Amino acid sequence: MMKGSVKVEQKLRIAICEDMKKDRDRLLTLVRETGASAKCDIFPSGEALLERFRKGMYHLIYLDIYMIDISGMETARRIRERDESVLLAFTTTSRDHAFEANKYRSLLYIEKPVTADMIAHTITLAEALKSKRESEILTISSESILFDIPHD
Asked: Would you give per-residue pLDDT tens digits along the chain (152 residues)?
């Protein structure tokens, strides 16, 4: 029996990396309120996200900048070493890192408090980019983990 299977994945795969529980909960609630078909994984730190992160695993990552262990910027740097195309949306209380966020090709730089409109905007952009790429990507499911593999 095959452990993996080939399937078409319709859901947007999102990671929320935020060390403050109230901010994690708010982001998750706002994503759900968009009505988007999305699977969200929650990470309380950059280290926790990086331990699990694999190329093609997510379409969109919401990434807090100020976290206790490693910063969101350092987490983004390490993500970009592994995956050039995952969409990053930084969430923060400060404008201080907006220029630096461009270095990691962020989709958006969102100041807290995060609003429903900003989350809806990132979801809309992520869904549009996902749809554009679907003809170029094969999604593989293996032991409940999904990966996107580019193909021509």
From this structure: 445 544 445 789 999 999 999 999 999 999 999 999 999 999 999 999 999 999 999 999 999 999 988 999 999 999 999 999 999 999 999 888 777 777 888 888 999 999 999 999 999 999 988 876 655 555 555 555 655 565 54
Whether residue 91 lies inside any domain: the answer is: yes
Pair of tokens at residue 111: 């100041």
Q: 138 - beta bridge partners?
A: 149
Q: Is 126 exposed, middle or buried (0-12, 13-18, 19+ CB in 10 A)?
A: buried
Which two structure tokens, joined as six digits, stand for 50? 């990086």
Q: Does residue 4 sit within a domain?
A: no
Token representation of residue 142? 């293996």
Q: 49: which strand partners?
A: none
Instruction: Give the domain CATH number at 15.
Output: 3.40.50.2300
Residue 134 sits in which domain range? 11-150
In a domain, 5, yes or no: no
**pTM higher than 0.90 for the full model?**
no
